[in-house]
Specification:
By secondary structure, this protein is an alpha+beta fold. The protein contains 21 helices and 29 strands. The longest helix is centred in the N-terminal third of the chain and has 30 residues. Belongs to the CcmF/CycK/Ccl1/NrfE/CcsA family.
């Protein structure tokens, strides 16, 4: 047992906590009772030193935690419960933030990084802003403190020993120093490259929301009620872009990994991230309005504070255990719910109280807004975003409401909607309609002087093109035998208007020689996303309908029997527009491109090792020779499905993944899809049922055949030729010793489409006879060499058969889903473009002027 690394890590957590406390108090004293920027230098030096110590301690904690994971120190509960010996290095990184403690540590890390940037680039605002930063760090570090004071537990330490966590296990009573040889491993669904980059991106987005919040609170505190917007706005823009990217990364991970057929399932944990992002984007618009048009400052204050409070609420939702029965991937309660509630309550109450106290002092605009003011429509757009966030927040919070009323002794019967996807989607799609329409309208109006004539002239072209485009879409949909509802027509119209209006704005600006508007690009991306969601979700088409007239199993539900196709191994089956052939099971072999046919591998007692039964070749390169030991990743089996388009004859193969996992309940199948991307659609396939590898195969009674070399026998629909008898190879895992006699038969079995080499083995060791049968999984055939008559040259083979291998597959066509992903890229580019433009203008994102989600300066001349 290595206790030193854990002691260093835990001590570093305590140092980080103490240093954050010192930094918060010292920054407070440095600025207390003083004008902004006129700080007490002695307190400021102490504060900076304390924050540097805090940062160093946090980096030490991270190093220690990753060490216990990477070095497989299973004496620690965190390493044992999240990693395993055979996990690739990149997924060990995912192990770091799979647990609650690691995710809090990731959040703390980003705050340290951002704090150092603020100390470097915002010296004038450093003391009040960093006082708030350090206070937040104090609470966050307390979540991983892991100390007990009397009957009160403060935080959950990532360095707790396994024997201290699982105290009731008998093994620790017999041997307190017992260390498991392997860990439980990383959740299979998290073994995906998106889980390496998605959580850090998401938590960076979380951390970035603290920056505008800290500036806003500092502005209220120091009565700098207008000056805070300029330094805070670039950070808000970066936060909106990063958090939005994090949300979409999660959506794409779900699309690639989960088998519900989409990318967003309105799970409460998804909602908990989506809500603050909407409000953050709304606050960004409000800040732009104040910075450029001197209106909406109170709204900006309220929305910036609301964004951070919602981040805290999201943390409470996902980590308190309150969503345990409502979400499939919320964290369980580690006894931190009380701390989380206090954390949320302290900052919420203090921030709201300060805002109320200063409310009457916050400047308001005397300008009267009319229908021809773009500011009005930007404000309306921000309101729509907030209303959309409130609709999701209200429903997602039902479990919280029930729990709260239960604590008061009041039993409530409020239930979540039966069809949550429909409940959320109806309201959110209409929010998307208004956002698309308003973004196009506001962009056009922002760049010109508006009156009735100029507005009609500028809206005529995009409106006519939108109407024509919508009519064309309706005709094409109906031409293809599909229906389109009035609601979908409105959604299409809004999306097209958003695309055309924003594209027109971009074209006009470039023609005038004005710099490209990051806001127009971002809004163009959002409009494309709306169209992509509309097409891919509304017209997702199941192409694997069961047209055989047969019921696969009475144990299956109706949808599985109706919407899936049964594929027998190596038999071609027709499916809408395609001929499908299931051609076998494959394993992932580290270092070998693609996947390796399971039939080329002989499994050994070590489930992570196999022997190569034939040369393993990929791309013309031989990676393993016959008899070599091969490292494999056995958790997942990949089922190769060959697709052939009947019209064009084009072929491609997909490898949907499946894992039989007891934790998945009845059926125990954890399946991930395989996706084939085309320009206009995706083919999305996943297996719904397979032969359970945990169950022994049911073989028929063996039938003996006496053969000589060169003889042929018939095996059901196939035939086999006995070619030769030869010394056995180590590929069967015999561990041959001196004096052993081992012979193997070389038989060729002729299947429907290919030939199979089968090598049943006959072994004599210490006058005892052993037999190692060989199977052809493709054909469901097993052969054993049971007897040898060397005098007569005869060999006895026992043949038995089993049910042929199969998969039940669901396949869907997702039309125009690339509009969603390309729109996401455009939105990201728009945010990035605005950050870059602000950086050029101001020299640094941290000191730059207001970013342009909508460009604020008017052109010099407007015709």
């Amino acid at each position: 047992m290595n206790l030193l690394i854990g002691n260093i890590g835990h001590l570093s957590v305590i140092v980080a906590f103490a240093a954050a406390l010192v930094a918060a108090y010292s920054y407070f004293q440095a600025t207390r009772g003083r004008a902004l920027g006129n700080d007490d230098t002695s307190w400021l030096r102490v504060a900076r030193g304390a924050f540097f110590v805090h940062g160093l301690a946090v980096f030490t904690v991270i190093g220690c935690l990753f060490n216990i994971i990477q070095a497989h120190r299973y004496e620690y509960y965190y390493a044992w419960s999240h990693s395993s010996n055979h996990l690739p290095v990149e997924y060990m990184i995912s192990c770091f933030w799979e647990g609650q403690e690691g995710s809090f540590l990731l959040w703390i890390f980003w705050h340290v990084v951002l704090g150092l940037f603020i100390m470097r680039f915002n010296r004038k605002w450093e003391a009040p802003v960093m006082a708030i930063f350090s206070g937040v760090q104090l609470f966050l570090v307390s979540m991983i403190l892991g100390i007990v004071l009397g009957d009160v537990k403060i935080g959950s330490s990532p360095f707790i020993l396994l024997r201290d966590f699982l105290t009731d296990l008998p093994v620790f009573k017999l041997n307190p120093d017992f260390v498991p040889k392997d860990g439980t491993g990383l959740n299979a669904l998290l073994q995906n490259y998106w889980m390496v980059i998605h959580p850090p991106t998401l938590f960076l987005g979380f951390a970035l929301t603290l920056v505008p919040f800290a500036f806003a609170i500092a502005g209220l505190w120091k009565r700098e009620l207008t000056a805070w917007v300029k330094p805070a706005l670039p950070w808000t823009l970066i936060g909106g872009g990063v958090l939005g990217i994090g949300v979409v990364m999660g959506a794409y991970w779900a699309y690639e990994t989960l088998n519900f057929g989409g990318y967003w399932n309105w799970d409460p944990v998804e909602n908990a991230v989506y809500i603050p992002w909407l409000v953050l984007v709304a606050s960004l618009h409000g800040m732009v309005l104040w910075q450029k048009r001197r209106t909406g400052l109170r709204t900006s204050f309220a929305l910036v504070i609301a964004t951070f409070v919602l981040i805290l609420y999201a943390t409470f939702l996902t980590r308190s255990g309150v969503l345990g029965n409502a979400s499939v991937h919320s964290f369980t309660d580690l006894g931190l719910s009380g701390q989380l509630f206090i954390y949320m309550a302290v900052f919420s109450v203090l921030a709201i109280a300060l805002l109320v106290y200063r409310w009457k002092e916050i400047p308001i605009s005397e300008k009267e807004l009319t229908l021809y003011n773009p500011e009005l429509w930007v404000f309306v757009g921000a309101t729509v975003l907030c209303l959309g966030a409130f609709q999701v927040l209200f429903t997602t919070s039902i479990p919280v409401y029930n729990s709260f009323m239960g604590l008061l002794g009041i039993k409530t019967n409020v239930a979540l909607p039966a069809d949550q996807i429909a409940h959320y989607s109806k309201a959110q799609l209409w929010m998307g309609v208004f956002v698309a329409l308003l973004s196009g309208l506001a962009q056009i109006m922002w760049w010109q002087r508006n009156d009735k004539t100029t507005l009609v002239n500028s809206l005529t072209a995009p409106t006519l093109l939108t109407l024509l485009g919508t009519a064309l879409v309706v005709l094409l949909v109906r031409y293809n035998g599909l229906t389109i509802t009035p609601a979908y027509i409105v959604l299409t119209l809004a999306g097209l208007f958003g695309v055309l209006a924003n594209f027109g704005t971009i074209f006009t600006l470039l023609r005038r020689g004005v710099r490209l508007s990051g806001g127009a690009v971002a809004h163009l991306g959002i409009a494309l996303m709306l169209l992509g969601i509309l097409a891919s979700s509304g017209y997702s088409n199941i192409i694997s309908r069961n047209v055989s007239g047969l019921l696969y199993s009475r144990e299956f539900d109706e949808s599985l029997n109706r919407d899936n196709v049964l594929l027998w191994r190596n038999e071609t089956t027709k499916m809408q527009g395609y001929d499908l052939t299931y051609t076998g099971q494959f394993f992932d072999v580290p270092g070998v491109p693609g996947y390796v046919d399971k039939q080329f591998l002989f499994r050994t007692d070590d489930e992570y090792k196999a022997l190569a039964r034939a040369p393993i070749v990929a791309g013309g390169k031989t990676y393993y020779k016959t008899g070599d030991t091969v490292e494999i990743l056995p958790e997942n089996t990949y089922y190769r499905i060959s697709y052939k388009e009947r019209e064009t004859g084009k072929e491609f193969s997909l490898y949907p993944r499946a894992q039989v996992n007891d934790e998945m309940g009845e059926g125990g199948l954890l399946a991930s899809p395989a996706v084939k991307q085309f320009l206009t659609h995706d083919i999305y396939s996943h297996v719904s049922s397979v032969l359970d590898p945990r169950k022994e195969k049911q073989w028929s009674e063996e039938k003996d055949h006496v053969l000589a070399v060169g003889d042929t026998i018939f095996l059901n629909d196939y035939f086999a030729v006995f070619r030769a008898i030869e010394p056995a190879h180590e590929t069967a895992g015999l561990n041959l010793q001196k004096g052993d006699l081992a012979l193997q038969a070389d038989m060729i079995v002729h299947g429907e489409k290919r030939q199979y080499h089968v090598h049943p083995v006959f072994v004599v060791r210490n006058r005892l006879v052993g037999r190692v049968p060989d199977e052809v999984d493709d054909l469901g055939v097993r052969l054993s060499l049971t007897n040898i008559d060397p005098t007569a040259g005869k060999f006895t083979f026992a043949v038995s058969t089993t049910q042929k291998d199969y998969v039940i597959l669901k396949a869907m066509e997702k039309p125009f889903i690339n509009l969603l992903w390309s729109g996401t890229l455009l939105m990201t580019f728009g945010f990035g473009l605005s950050v870059w433009q602000r950086g050029r203008k101001g020299g640094s994102p941290a000191v730059a002027d207001a970013p342009a989600l909508v460009r604020a300066e008017r052109p010099q001349s407007v015709s």
